[in-house]
Specification:
This protein is an alpha/beta fold. Helix 1 packs across helix 8. The protein starts with 8 loop residues before the first strand and ends with a strand. The radius of gyration is 25 Å and the shape is elongated. The chain folds into two domains: 267 residues, Crotonobetainyl-coa:carnitine coa-transferase, domain 1 (Rossmann fold, 3-Layer(aba) Sandwich), CATH 3.40.50.10540; 83 residues, formyl-coa transferase, domain 3 (2-Layer Sandwich), CATH 3.30.1540. 38% of the residues lie in helices and 16% in strands.
């Protein structure tokens, strides 16, 4: 079976994380992604540590399954080459500051004249149409302005950023989804279109119940630490050897929990008889539960809770995550050969589809300029044309 997006060409002009994360998803699903990098040093995150044998681990994290083409963006001949390539691809992805693509005569309005079937994905920091559209926007700025940080942390800490650049990642996911929707629509219309999102809009679009509380009830949620904002008991509890997570999302689940900890009468106590009462008296309930959990280890509690049908699990650090048998046996990490690092473990795409054949990582993140010659040849340039571009330093090939 063919890969889902096999046969589609993507010109990836993006950098840092949101755009590259989007194109990594497309590449995982089978699209040919041509990662265009500026000469002479390439994508900016190649310079970001930490490093393994001189290679950026950051770069390794988001560039599997892609090809590297290095072009001199400052040379008019380089921009002319990119415009020519854009006329022959299905998808262009960019996340420059607003106005940069226009300055290179590569805005959607320019490119669609020669490629009306083009799907053009643009990711900005804060989105277009408002007073902040020209502001530079990065992940943590978007986390703060979206309200996400105001929901994350404890009373003592105040607002806290999420431990990964979630604004970038989520914007990339929304963008990949929009691109695929535009591809489906192109089948019926024959036309491409501009699809846009921003880090800010992507995070606001995920506020779900917390956002709706504000919009519908006028309630401004505050930080709740590791407790669920509207369900109790649901959060982090303390066993004898450390913290674990537990969720009792219904009265029936809570009754089972009370039986397990040998306090069956707790479920009919008026302080805890339903979720509303439990939320009102959450601190008191949590103290009672932790006094019981303190006598056994977190994995022992987890196994007993799971047997009763209650969601529970230990809290792992990343060393424990990637040593966990379930993570490894269920294919959440894959291996691939890297030309300089040897056998390389990479995070797998979490999607499971028959057409992916149980493997999402097919090629390692490319060495800078590794594919420049072969990519241009695939676009129909002759050997002499490619040699001229390389000799004149418009294109870089290792």
């Amino acid at each position: 079976m063919k890969l889902p997006l096999e046969g589609l060409k993507v010109l990836d002009l993006s950098r840092a994380l949101a755009g590259p994360f989007c194109t990594m998803i497309l590449a995982d699903l089978g699209a040919e992604v041509i990662k265009v990098e500026p000469s002479p040093k390439g994508e900016m995150i190649r310079q970001w540590g930490p490093f393994k044998d001189g290679i950026s681990v950051y770069y390794l994290s988001v560039h599997r399954n892609k090809k590297s083409l290095v072009v001199n963006f400052r040379d008019p001949a380089g921009l002319s080459l990119l415009r020519d390539l854009a006329s022959k691809v299905d998808i262009v992805v960019e996340n420059f500051k607003p106005g940069v693509m226009k300055s290179m005569d590569m805005a959607y309005e320019d490119l669609k004249k020669t490629n009306p079937r083009l799907i053009f994905s643009s990711i900005t920091g804060l989105g277009r149409g408002g007073p902040y559209e020209d502001w530079p926007g990065v992940d943590q700025i978007a986390q703060g302005m979206s309200g996400l940080m105001s929901l994350t942390g404890k009373k003592e800490s105040g607002p806290v950023r999420v431990g990964i650049p979630i604004g970038d990642v989520v914007a990339g996911m929304w963008s990949a989804m929009a691109i695929q929707a535009a591809l489906i629509q192109r089948h019926s219309t024959g036309q491409g279109q501009l699809v846009e999102t921003s880090l800010l809009a992507s995070l606001i679009g995920m506020l779900n119940v917390q956002g709706q509380r504000q919009l519908t009830l006028g309630e401004t949620p505050d930080v709740v630490g590791n407790d669920h904002p509207v369900i109790c008991p649901y959060g982090v509890f303390e066993a004898s050897d450390g913290p674990f997570n537990l969720a009792a999302t219904s009265d029936d689940m809570f009754a089972k929990l009370c039986t397990l900890i040998e306090l069956p009468g707790l479920s009919t106590d008026e302080r805890f008889v339903n979720n509303t009462a439990r939320m009102t008296n959450r601190d008191e309930l949590k103290q009672i539960l932790n006094s019981k959990f303190a006598v056994r280890k977190k994995m022992e509690w987890t196994l007993d809770l799971v047997k009763l049908g209650l969601p529970a699990g230990p809290i792992f650090n990343l060393e424990q995550v990637f040593a966990d048998p379930h993570v490894n046996q269920s294919g959440m990490v894959e291996e691939v050969d890297h030309p300089e690092l040897g056998r390389l473990r990479l995070l797998a795409n979490p999607i499971r589809m028959e057409s992916l054949n149980g493997k999402s990582v097919r090629t390692a993140p490319p060495i800078l300029g590794a594919d420049s010659r072969s990519v241009l040849s695939d676009f129909g340039l002759s050997d002499s044309q490619i040699n001229q571009l390389i000799d004149s330093k418009v294109v870089q090939q290792i």
